[in-house]
Amino acid sequence: SAFLSPSDLESFTAHLQRSQRIVAVPGAGLSASSGLPTFRGAGGLWRNYNATSLATPGAFRSDPGLVWMFYSYRRHMSLNAKPNPAHYALAELARRKPEFLTLSQNVDGLSPRAGHPADQVKLLHGSLFDVKCEDESCGYIRRDDFDDPIVPALAIPADESSMAEQSKARPDQALQAAMARKAALIKGLDISDASIPIPTIPRSSLPHCPKCKTSLLRPGVVWFGEMLPEAVLSDIDAYFDEVDPKPQAEAGNKGHMQPKKVDLCLVIGTSSQVYPAAGYASQARSMGARVAVINTDPSDARDLQEGDWFFKGDAADIVPEILK
Ligand code: BJW
What we know:
Helix content is 36%, strand content 15%. By secondary structure, the chain is an alpha/beta fold. This is Deacetylase sirtuin-type domain-containing protein.
């Protein structure tokens, strides 16, 4: 980025205090210190797959078992992760500022679990704990499904047989590796390691839609090329379109009501590459907002302008610090 604004905490705090309408646009970096991997950069690989290549309708069509393994693993990881101080600080800001709205790209459930009021957090990319029929015309959706695993076939295999095979071939080394893997499985059930075998799951063992009984269930998340949830988009539009009737009525121009100004936009731990999420900061800016970017990587602070802030570091440290 050509221009990097200073991490001037004093001016930020002063602006925060007089701000009423605030939007936050968090991404995977918000949950990184809770131990959940991001999509791009280090940790963006799941086994040998690029995480974003599994987040497509095409990937699910061609290998639903593999894609379900990926999401089953992430459901498990998210359920076992804890919200970090940044999730709590945002939840607390929401209670302090009734016009604060979080537009979260995260599907991990950590913001709701940190007590972020539900009407003040919009889940742009859905939730790992919503499951829905892959056939849109069926329309079945089930929310808050925390079963882990969601079907027995998605249980993480402890794969005794392949470990036994390997220890026959090269007794010492292989056995040690197998023990380490097994320990990893027991500890965190980590099948993100490509050397840990996963089975090929027959379609019949994957979760099926209880309504139409023919199609598979799929994670209730938004994949590339798919529309964001309509209700979420319309709530966000309504927020940005909201008008303040009083002062304008007084001014006598009732016919030309301007939307309320947005004071501040917090862009937290996102590479700002995925739309429409990445566009909300500029939308807020066009409505008067000053922008603060919190990220470990300065090169992901896009289009910073004079008057913006950039705070470099772990969101779990910075966010509670600047929102204090
Ligand atoms: C830390 C940290 C720490 C690390 N502290 N920071 C306009 C222009 C061009 C293309 C399009 C456009 N409009 C639409 C499109 C197409 C497409 C798109 O945006 N493509 C771009 C990639 C070019 N968008 C869509 O398809 C969207 N649908 C749509 O627009 O429908 C209408 C339409 C359809 C077709 C054509 C046109 C219009 C849907 C997007 C859905 C995205 N889905 C995913 C998967 C969700 C399910 C799942 O979780 O598996 O959402 S992809 C993935 O990326 C996930 C994330 O929410 C999203 C954003 O990633 P995020 O959160 O930014 O993570 P990272 O890893 O990229 O970045 C982490 C950041 O944190 C980094 O900056 C680190 O430095 C930082 N960090 N540790 C602070 N501790």
